[in-house]
């Protein structure tokens, strides 16, 4: 390259690409810290990285099965932004056009990430707040993040605290499943010919194609929960999702692609609107009980009267609904197709799926809690003849801090196990405090074997 040209470019800034200017937005923000990360990195750097990646990736995939499937393809205001740096994770979603679904979906993502990290052998600690943040590929900044960090640092236990402001935003009873404006728009598009709309406003065609497929898909999925035994859902078939993905994956859709998507929306819009009305017609008592079970599955109030993510619990969609599970499964297979996603999920929800996953979660969590107890409830490495030594005092403080974490995790674990009938997975261990250090010592011969129910 010509030296003169190179110097001119450097002086004038030619060829320099400026990063996008960040903007502060009000968001729900989750910030958390992976506990024990530094010691794990020191022992096995690549293995620790693999486990962090697996936890993050598994959670993202699990959450994306339904709620995020078409949302991530078409994009909308509910996009959750995530950033990982060292042992810290930040997640944020805009409060713009906030709905009960958006708040619950966000908390579900946080919960899923926490449970997946647990399966990778990590406890996490953090907070969920509401505040201003700018989050991009280059920046994570804002008063909301500062508050989340402060709450995380003040939190001694392996839990993700939910700030009262966020708790107050969670509706305590069900509201209309989908936004009235979007449903009106869906109704409008269902009767509007493509040629007419394209002639009036071509951009409106693109808007419909981006916005409506996730709405239709969401209604079909809601029907599987709110409308047992799924009567009258003949048009809600898997080919809708398959077709939407097929066209959406094409980064440069042709005119024919756009026409096909629009016609597909019209084909399913009428059925989706009918199903929406049926969802609203479900008995209020059943809906309220179902919704309360959903909130209960996400939020736990601990002994300190603090709201936190209920990461071990799993939502029970059958709560409050007196239905014949086998009949529901048969109807789902008949009306959606035996190999459809809706039929598959219905089988899981009505065939012990929740109990199976809950047991797997409790077994993995029990192992992690016991490991923490083994580390915390010992005097190993502490010289009791040098209790006035600052280094020894620091070790004792760290050990007592670990015990507080272990105590909280054990109490929470036992609460979930007992509430769900897994008495054999309850952790029973009562130690005695050492008089000199106050460290609670695990009694000799303590067995942590899983007993038969």
Structure commentary:
The chain is α+β, with helices and mostly antiparallel strands. The chain has 3 domains: 25-169, Alpha-Beta Plaits, CATH 3.30.70; 180-281, no CATH class; 359-441, no CATH class. 56% of the residues lie in helices and 11% in strands. The protein has 17 helices and 10 strands. It has helices at residues 3-12, 37-43, 45-64, 69-74, 100-119, 143-154, 164-169, 180-190, 194-200, 202-226, 238-248, 255-281, 284-298, 325-336, 341-349, 353-376, 390-419; strands spanning 25-34, 81-85, 88-94, 124-135, 140-141, 160-162, 299-301, 307-309, 432-433, 440-441. The strands form 3 sheets. Strands 1, 2, 3, 4, 5 and 6 form a 6-stranded mixed β-sheet that branches. A two-stranded antiparallel sheet has the order 7-8. A hairpin with a 2-residue loop joins strand 2 and strand 3. The longest helix has 30 residues, at 390-419. It is elongated.
| Shape field | elongated
Number of helices: 17
Q: Kindly, what is the distance between the CA atoms of the first and last residues, rounded to a whole number of angstroms?
A: 77 Å
How many beta strands in the DSSP annotation?
Answer: 10
CATH architecture call of the largest domain: 2-Layer Sandwich
Structural class: alpha+beta
CATH topology annotation of the largest domain: Alpha-Beta Plaits
State the name of the first-level CATH class of the largest domain: Alpha Beta
For the sheet with most strands, the description reads: 6 strands, mixed
What are the segments in which pLDDT stays under 50 over at least 5 consecutive residues?
65-77, 229-237
**Which value, in Å, is the CA radius of gyration?**
26 Å
What is the assigned CATH homologous superfamily of the largest domain? Nucleotide cyclase, GGDEF domain
pLDDT averaged over residues = 75
The share of residues in extended strands comes to 5-15%
Helix content: 55-70%
How many discrete domains? 3
H/E element order: HEHHHEEHEEHEHHHHHHHEEHHHHEE
């Amino acid at each position: 390259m010509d030296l003169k040209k190179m110097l001119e470019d450097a002086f004038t800034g030619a060829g320099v690409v400026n990063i996008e200017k960040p903007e502060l937005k009000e968001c729900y923000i989750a910030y958390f810290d992976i506990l024990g990360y530094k010691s794990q990195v020191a022992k096995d750097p690549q293995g620790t990285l693999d486990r962090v990646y697996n936890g993050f990736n598994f959670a993202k995939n699990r959450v994306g099965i339904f709620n995020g499937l078409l949302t991530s393809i078409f994009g909308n205001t509910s996009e959750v932004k995530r950033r990982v740096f060292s042992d810290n994770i930040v997640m944020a979603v805009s409060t713009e056009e906030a709905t009960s679904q958006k708040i619950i979906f966000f908390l579900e993502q946080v919960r899923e990430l926490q449970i997946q990290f647990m399966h990778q052998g990590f406890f996490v600690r953090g907070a969920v707040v509401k505040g201003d943040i700018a989050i991009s590929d280059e920046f994570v900044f804002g008063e909301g993040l500062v508050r989340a960090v402060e709450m995380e640092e003040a939190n001694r236990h392996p839990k993700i605290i939910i700030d009262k402001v966020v708790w107050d935003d969670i509706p305590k009873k069900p509201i209309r499943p989908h936004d009235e404006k979007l449903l009106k728009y869906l109704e409008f598009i269902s009767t509007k010919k493509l040629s007419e709309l394209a002639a009036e406003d071509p951009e409106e065609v693109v808007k419909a194609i981006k916005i409506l497929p996730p709405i239709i898909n969401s209604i079909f999925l809601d029907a599987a929960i709110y409308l047992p035994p799924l009567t009258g859902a003949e048009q809600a078939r898997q080919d809708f999702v398959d077709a939407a993905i097929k066209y959406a994956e094409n980064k440069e859709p042709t005119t024919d692609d756009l026409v096909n998507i629009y016609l597909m929306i019209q084909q399913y819009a009428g059925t989706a609107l009918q199903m929406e009305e049926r969802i609203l017609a479900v008995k209020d008592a059943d809906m309220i009980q179902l919704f309360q079970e959903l909130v209960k599955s996400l939020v736990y109030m601990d002994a300190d009267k603090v709201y936190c993510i209920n990461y071990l619990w799993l939502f029970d969609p059958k709560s409050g609904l007196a239905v014949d599970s086998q009949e529901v499964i048969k109807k789902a297979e008949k009306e959606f197709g035996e190999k459809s996603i809706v039929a598959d999920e219905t089988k899981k929800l009505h065939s012990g799926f929740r109990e199976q996953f809950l047991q797997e979660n409790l077994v993995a969590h029990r192992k992690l809690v016991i490991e923490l107890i083994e580390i915390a409830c010992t005097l190993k490495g502490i010289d009791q003849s040098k209790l006035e030594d600052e280094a020894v005092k620091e070790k004792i403080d760290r050990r007592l801090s670990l015990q507080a974490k272990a105590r909280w995790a054990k109490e929470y674990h036992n609460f979930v196990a007992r509430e769900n009938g897994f008495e054999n997975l309850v952790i029973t261990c009562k130690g005695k405090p050492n008089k000199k250090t106050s460290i609670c010592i695990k009694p000799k011969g303590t067995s942590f074997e899983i007993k038969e129910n």
